[in-house]
């Protein structure tokens, strides 16, 4: 399954792969609560900023940081527990497939550019403050605005399907071993 506008290359092409290590920060908390699609937010940096805004895919790998728990207060006053990924275990620590959104989230009219990773894996707990290594291997589509939340959710679910199909090709799977 795909979209007419999604170009699937036989293998990643420049500027991909973009391989980085970062840390999971907190956002507005809307991914899980409003969309049912949690995203691990990461700070924007020069390399990600140079990509055009839109939806990307690749592999990622989480590692707990050995730091004490911290409570951080979000802009809206909510307290977020940063346990730095202490509860990650077993398959949570494998290399996992992901989709990444980079941009302004036009549906929510954000004032700051965000980079967010949805990992196609079921986690029992949050992992704010964990280390995330990832490689971005390709681009799916631009960021869009939507008239309904349901339409956004439907499109994200199609992104996930497309990403899983591409990542299943040997020429993309081989990048799993590079994290
Ligand atoms: P925020 O706006 O703070 O990023 P979200 O609702 O997007 O809030 O939730 C993000 C948090 O959910 C992540 O930081 C991570 O700790 C956790 N999480 C649980 N499951 C996943 C998943 N499959 N992919 C990404 N993050 C996940
Ligand atoms: N937000 C948008 O406003 N427009 C989009 O087209 C859009 N596409 C996304 C695709 C994926 C795969 C993901 C993970 C997120 C996307 N988002 C998009 C971001 C979404 O609005 C955001 O994750 C939530 O607001 C939670 O931060
Ligand atoms: Mg998020």
Strand content: 25-35%
User: Which molecules other than protein and nucleic acid are bound?
Assistant: adenosine-5'-diphosphate, riboflavin, magnesium ion
Shape: globular
Count of DSSP E strands? 8
Provide the number of structural domains: 1
Straight-line distance between termini = 27 Å
> Which CATH class is shown?
Mainly Beta
Mean pLDDT: 95
CATH superfamily: Riboflavin kinase-like
Structure report:
With 179 residues, the protein is an alpha+beta fold. 19% of the residues lie in helices and 30% in strands. The chain has a single domain, classed as Elongation Factor Tu (Ef-tu), domain 3, CATH 2.40.30. A hairpin with a 5-residue loop joins strand 4 (70-73) and strand 5 (79-82). The chain is globular and about 45 Å long. The structure holds adenosine-5'-diphosphate (ADP), riboflavin and magnesium ion.
